Amino acid sequence: MPPSFMPGLSLCRLFYLEAVRPLLDRAYPGLSHAAARIGPGSEVLGFDSERSVDHDWGPRLELFLSVEDVISHGADISALLAARLPKQICGWPTNFEPPGARVQVMAATTGPVAHRVHITDVTNWSAGQFGFDVRRGMSALDWLAIPAQRLAEATGGAVFHDDSGELTHLRSRLRWYPDEVWRYILAAQWTRIAQEEAFVGRSAEAGDDLGSRLVAARLAREVMRLCLLLARQYPPYSKWLGTAFAALPDIEVIVAALREAVGTGDAARRQAGLCTAYEVAGRWQNQLGLANPVEPTRRPYFDRPYPVIDAARFVTALLERVSDATLAALPPVGAVDQYVDSTDVLSQRDLPRYIMDAVSREPSDNDRF
Fold this sequence. Notes:
Elements: H1 8-27, E1 34-37, H2 42-45, E2 61-64, H3 67-84, E3 88-89, E4 92-93, E5 96-97, E6 105-106, E7 117-120, H4 122-130, H5 140-144, H6 148-155, E8 158-162, H7 166-173, H8 179-194, H9 199-205, H10 209-230, H11 238-246, H12 252-263, H13 267-288, E9 299-301, E10 304-308, H14 312-319, H15 325-328, H16 336-339, H17 343-346, H18 351-360
Parallel strand pairs: 2-7
Antiparallel strand pairs: 1-2, 1-8, 3-4, 5-6, 9-10
């Protein structure tokens, strides 16, 4: 029988304390290090379950040394762990198969342990996660070029030990966007709502009920991302977006409104549900004091019978409080994952940065479209 499920972060903590740390202390007494479970993985976001154990889940660690110690001791420590780690921790195998594959699963072994203790240093880990060492400082464009999922992976999870505080400091710097960047990203999120909020009613009026439902679902997704941004939480990618949204405090009214919007067969109720969600989100933004208050009530869409929030008003209010010259010069497209919806793009390390550079660059006479 498999062991009882336990949250992955708890398992990883025990793996460090009971298996990895004793080996380090005996073989390398006094070695300065940090140990954490951060980066990709449902357990890092706290969303793992019994289903998660079938791949890329189990006793794992990121073990951070100094750059010099990685060079001097990294390979030897990895070999030590392979030879001396217990074969199980809390009943879960510490061995993963197949070694080096993109997707791995826990598997019993009687030989050396193909472990998943990633030995690295903060500089190289940061470069692998973001494309550069964030400790050197971050511009507004740096923030915008990092998909929110990668920021969630870096600031989620847990640090089990940190002698130097270097890893803890890095995570603290990344905890949330600077206020000017936050305002700009919120403005971009309201822009996405402004661009389509009238389409739910118009497509239904044109006899396209399926299209109306599709637009309503798109707008519900934008509201969910907006609420996470208002709550100072990085929106995760689609698999976990609804889970993260539903876990927000005092979100029940918006949840109910969005359920109505995407579930009803009546176009008028669909539009009304979305407007209720917009109004609550608008009041939430006003309470944060990030911009001048905006009247958060629904209104007609010009002379057409579709209620909207006129989300562009929130965009204007936020951008009026953005004084950073770089951000002020950009169109309100936001961070890279607000205007790029391709997993193949966002999962790469460097391509989001190239895209952000292209968006921010002044066009020249040599540009061809």
